[in-house]
DNA sequence: TAAAAAAATTAACGCGCGTAAAAAATAAAT
DNA sequence: ATTTATTTTTTACGCGCGTTAATTTTTTTA
């Protein structure tokens, strides 16, 4: 930067101001800088900047599992919002590991972010460590909430969305059984289970839970092997299965196909299967998966909006703001 | 670090040595440091370290598209190898954008990596910028090669793997038509096309290419819409389709299902479909996808091995080392 | 055109660490 | 108990930038 200052004839503090915010210098000097920039390709070192600024324009985005297309997609949407607002996204995935989640937060600290958007692992998260982090850095949760922590939450209204699909399934056929993991990794699983039970009771139906074994984030495989056992035992009280999420449903559909169960609403179908999330791949299952979509865009927009508001105003809200967005029924072939 | 030096009674340069390599200090001092570390949780600032060390133990990993489970998976394997070798992985995805790929390399420069493992976008990559980077940082390519660049390449032997599945398909039924994108994003697509043509000619069969429209990385959708057109026109010279990659096949299978084509090898099946890659989801298609696997682990191991060798020896090889690993036939239901 | 306001420059310090050289302390070898 | 080899400490500088305060220059306003 010293060299560039020498060759451009602009003092280093002015350059520093310019790179922080180009509009903060007189337009004539800005032009001088930009024409010098056209000759040599100088770019300030991001890490040296991070080290010195009290606060940067970095915004951390942390998701539980980047290899899950659902999180990859919502992270992508988040990133775009952050860029559009003039901030710099720093995307990190936790590989489903609580230790990695803490590691990510520790690494984020070093970047001195203006704020972070955090989709926590949930059940397995190390709450006290996350609480420490939230005390230092403005944090907005999305996808999954950790009740007392953070400035805000933006996510789906599981009660509404599960209610929606339960209503639909009951209206158009046998009431659904709920297909889920016994000890779910997914943080929304318990809410969905409760929402299912509530919806069934509201409709005067008896809820049934089918809980399959399995650990980790390989949901398709867990759904597949779980479904093999459940379907071949033929002990199901209903021909309709509502899965806690689409990835379980994808595994279930594969098992059903291999066992010769015909899935769908029409005549001659032995099974109806529905999911939740509108996972990027749910369009391509056979039959295509009936599910309820999460409003990715609204969730991302609200989370980003709230965080930007906090950053610009400079002080945190007294009360945690919670936004729950409704899901939409996506009717396809499977139910 | 100064504070920690004061409280632990160890001088800062010694601490600096310790954090760089714990075995480089006398074991008695190491114990003193570690017991002090147990009291206060001090950790050196990674970015300050990167700024000052001539070279770090960071290793960059760049893939074309992190939201593609195939790359997410191979990146995960790479990361693990890097960690096991005592280095620190820095994972970056290019979102399918050449500009992002360059941006990633520019950002990596700031971290002063000991080396980088690069899966390039291929066709659309900005070659001269990548060449600049390779001149400065030891780079090993994987998945896709850029002929004259980098110290080494580790990837699949497309000629062998496509040959394998073409052989299989010809042996067990009608010779396959090759289903691909007209202007593929995937860097291996051209090699696979050529391998298909070569394999067919070797077997005395006439090659047929079905090239569908579409840009970008939403391969399932491109396969789906392309297949709808192709299948309903019924102008196929064969009942067997070999897809350039599994994601196209996933879209194709969904289209076939919706149009009522029965896919598989048995009696009453109208279509056979095969893919390439053994994509994480290919087990869960209906029917499960017959494909040829890439040896993720071997590819990752070799790429990492070669890079570590270069880093440790301190000088680059005179000649580029190219490793091509054979694929394995994964026989499932679809062909 | 002089005074006031805004912007840029100079000079100097700080961030959190790496690193080099010389001096001092400790351990190993004789 | 010496000598020698190995570690550690002291001292000081550097990395690439942010930031502040005092000063000078430029622009705006009256």
UniProtKB/TrEMBL annotation, chains A, B:
Classification via SMART domains: HTH_LACI (SM00354)
Keywords linked to the UniProt accession: DNA-binding, Transcription, Transcription regulation
Superkingdom: Bacteria
Cited InterPro entries: Cro/C1-type_HTH, HTH_LacI, LacI/GalR-like_sensor, Lambda_DNA-bd_dom_sf, Peripla_BP_I
Segments forming domain HTH cro/C1-type: 1-43
UniProt cross-references to Gene3D superfamilies, sorted A to Z: 3.40.50.2300, lambda repressor-like DNA-binding domains (1.10.260.40)
Domain HTH lacI-type: 1-53
Pfam families, per the entry: LacI (PF00356), Peripla_BP_3 (PF13377)
Signal peptide coordinates: none
A Gene Ontology molecular function term of the record: DNA-binding transcription factor activity
Protein name: DNA-binding transcriptional regulator, LacI/PurR family
Organism expressing this protein natively: Poseidonocella sedimentorum
């Amino acid at each position: 930067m010293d060299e560039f200052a020498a060759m451009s004839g602009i003092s280093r503090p002015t350059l520093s101001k310019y790179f922080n915010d180009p509009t903060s210098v007189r337009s004539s000097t800005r032009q001088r800088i930009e024409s010098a920039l056209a000759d040599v390709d100088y770019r300030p070192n991001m890490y040296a900047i991070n080290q010195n600024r009290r606060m940067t324009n970095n915004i951390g985005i942390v998701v539980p599992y980047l290899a899950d297309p659902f999180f990859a997609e919502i992270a992508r949407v988040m990133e775009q919002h952050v860029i559009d607002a003039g901030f710099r996204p720093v995307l990190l995935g936790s590989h489903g590991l609580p230790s990695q989640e803490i590691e990510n937060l520790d690494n984020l600290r070093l970047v001195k972010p203006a704020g972070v958007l955090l989709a926590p692992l949930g059940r397995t998260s190390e709450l006290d460590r996350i609480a420490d982090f939230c005390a230092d850095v403005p944090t907005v949760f999305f996808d999954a909430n950790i009740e007392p922590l953070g400035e805000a939450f933006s996510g789906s209204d599981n009660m509404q969305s599960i209610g929606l699909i339960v209503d639909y399934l009951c209206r158009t056929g046998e009431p659904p059984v709920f297909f889920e993991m016994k000890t779910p990794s997914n943080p929304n699983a318990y809410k969905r289970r409760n929402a299912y039970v509530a919806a069934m009771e509201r409709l005067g139906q008896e809820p049934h839970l089918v809980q399959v074994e399995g650990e980790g984030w390989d949901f398709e495989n867990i759904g597949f092997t779980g479904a093999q056992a459940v379907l071949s035992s033929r002990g199901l009280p209903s021909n309709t299965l509502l899965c806690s999420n689409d990835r379980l449903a994808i595994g279930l559909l594969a098992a059903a196909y291999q066992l010769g169960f015909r899935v769908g609403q029409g005549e001659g179908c032995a099974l109806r299967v529905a999911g939740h999330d509108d996972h990027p791949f749910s369009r391509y299952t056979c039959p295509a998966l009936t599910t309820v979509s999460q409003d990715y865009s609204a969730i991302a927009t609200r989370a980003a909006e709230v965080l930007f508001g906090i950053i610009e105003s400079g002080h945190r809200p007294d009360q945690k703001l919670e936004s729950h967005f409704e899901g939409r029924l996506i009717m396809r072939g499977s139910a």
